[in-house]
Known about the structure:
Layout: H1 19-33, H2 45-52, H3 56-72, H4 74-84, H5 86-104, H6 110-139, H7 144-186, H8 188-195, H9 218-226, H10 234-252, H11 255-260, H12 262-278, H13 280-291, H14 296-321, H15 330-350, H16 354-382, H17 388-417, H18 421-460, E1 466-468, E2 483-485
Amino acid sequence: xxxxxxxxxGAAKLQDQGWAWMVLLAAVVLQALTxxxxxxxxxxxxxxxxxxxxxxxxxxWFPSIMVAVLHGGGPLCSILVKRFGCRFVVMLGxxxxxxxxxxxxxxxxxxxxxxxxxxxxxxxxxxxxQAGVTVLGYYFVRWRTxxxxxxxxxxxxxxxxxxLLSQYxxxxxxxxxxxxxxxxxxxxxCVCGAIMRPIQxxxxxxxxxxxxxxxxxxxxxxxxxxxxxxPHHPTLQQHTRRTKCFQVLQRYLAFDIxxxxxxxxxxxxGVTWMMMGFALPHVYLVPYAIHNxxxxxxxxxxxxxxxxxxxxxxxxxxxxSGHRVxxxxxxxxxxxxxxxxxxxxxxxxxxxxxxxLILYCVILSIAMSGVGALTFQVLMDVVEMDRFSSALGLFTxxxxxxxxxxxxxxxxxxxxxxDFHYVFYNSSFxxxxxxxxxxxxxxxxxxxxxxxxxSRARLDNPSRYHYSETSTEPKAESQSPPVFEYITSx
Length: 490
């Protein structure tokens, strides 16, 4: 049953009340199980290295693939949601996630983990997370913003609980049995999906952008048919296939917006570059702490501290950024948060003492809260909402590429130099450069737009900018003074 099908005569009344709040609770749990899960992989980093005799670079491919697929599988998830509905896709994601982790417990090489935990679990988490977010849009209309903010706290809960649970299970029964238990825990995504029963939408709740539009290429097909071409003509069939392919790309990967919208172009490039360094502390912080003599339990606690602070700071950041003072200026708040993330990494370079690492986690968590709360808000600011889903598809695909290659490349550098400090040097370089690029580029773009608007206003009202010069010599009344028009062009 697709999401738009009826689920009972009174299903439309479920919006913003009653069962909708159970669905919101399920979405919180889903985000804790999916987006929060990769943060605990660093706890197993050292054990996996010793088990498979793998280098830092080889081991880091495993969480990199998981996170990249989790973010980059959005377009595929959208297609499945349209075909089968949110409930089915959430439950399918739970099955894949559980299957991936159960299979991982039997792996005999690090490369097998790439397939099981990396690809299968990552894809399952992507399906459950993105379909779970989508279903909130059907169950909430009036309280949609609040629902999304509450659901995002699940990520912080996952960041807090997963590392603590991982370290406890690892100490008690080893990484293989822990992965087996994780498979069972991730199957709870299916329970969350079962709660998200389909809901019948009223005609008034559908966005105006959902109205059917003329598809690209339809006029060309009509022209071929009007000229006597058969519907089975090879030229027409080939043109139809090209048109359908173009429509899919246009819907899920907005290359046209990327080429035409300078704001979206700058933001996408900046975030893509930022992701080369954003995930590095999550992957390497625990191994770095253990390498410098911090106990394993204390090292795992560092990630939990980041998640715990996020629970409180992220909603506050969302409320602050929603104030009308920051309307149109959220990109600068986002750039500031990214810059703070980059600068905070230098704390780890100064010292690896546990107390210093706690200070680092506090500052990093505050900055990360700003990044997490503003990422999609800024994207909504620079892209029209009727094209947001397709813009988001290209956005997540590009950032998933850098999420995939960032940790392994840094791990290779650590293997060559045997110095974990390069993790934080690299992270700082990518984050600071991305923050400066986005902030300065949007500032220049804003100034350019203001000058263009001023120039356009002068062209629309030329009489306001006419200046006259009159000679001191007497002239006939019929002779009009010369007029000089000054127009600034950009």
